[in-house]
Specification:
3 helices; three-stranded mixed beta sheet; 192 residues; alpha/beta; elongated; Rossmann fold; single chain; five-stranded mixed beta sheet
């Protein structure tokens, strides 16, 4: 009888523990829509960084807006790497494609010690509403090694295709792509 009772309690505890397990986290990365590739190649070098972010979104978890003054931190939906690393990587890749150069990198790259252009980005807003829109608002500065400087303010908003986190992250990538395109246009203006 005691043995039977112990087995029943053990089975009950196992069932309870199995029912309380947390789901595995899902990880996401940003991808900007590829800019139209420039014909020909360029030898200019570009370094992106540093990038600053609002503290509310500078975390491993995805953050979604759910109201005018309310956000939710999605514990099981996370960035594969910190946004402070992810954003400059995506911007550098897009600038390379837009400007026809393979000489792009992020601030931590030691391969490009004295770039022709340095891009600094202050992300003011990195906001997402599932099933609605993603907004990226950034102040940016492009500094040319030759001494010229361009600054800008870009606010890009992209519709989210559906209520999935994948669609939300895709919209964030497209909005970041719009910011990158404006930075690329500023670099082209500095080249003239």
């Amino acid at each position: 009888m005691r043995r039977r009772r112990a087995l029943i309690m053990l089975a009950g505890a196992a069932a309870l523990a199995g029912g309380c397990s947390s789901p595995d986290p899902v990880f996401y990365t940003l991808r900007a829509d590829p800019a139209p590739a420039r014909s020909g190649t360029s030898s200019i070098s570009i370094v992106v960084g540093p990038v600053t972010l609002p503290e509310a979104v500078d975390r491993p978890q995805l953050v979604t807006s759910t109201g005018e003054n309310r956000v939710e931190i999605q514990e099981f939906h996370r960035w594969a790497q910190p946004l402070k690393s992810e954003i400059p990587r995506v911007v550098a890749a897009q600038l390379g494609r837009q400007l026809g150069t393979a000489n792009t990198g992020v601030l931590s790259d030691v391969a490009i010690s004295e770039p022709d252009y340095r891009v600094l980005i202050d992300v003011q807003r990195f906001d997402s509403r599932r099933g609605e829109a993603a907004t990226v608002e950034a102040l940016w500065t492009v500094r040319a090694r030759s001494g010229g400087t361009r600054t800008g303010h870009t606010r890009a908003q992209e519709r989210v295709a559906d209520a999935s986190y994948e669609a939300m992250v895709a919209a964030q990538g497209r909005a970041l792509g719009a910011v990158s395109t404006e930075i690329g246009n500023a670099i082209e203006a500095l080249q003239r």
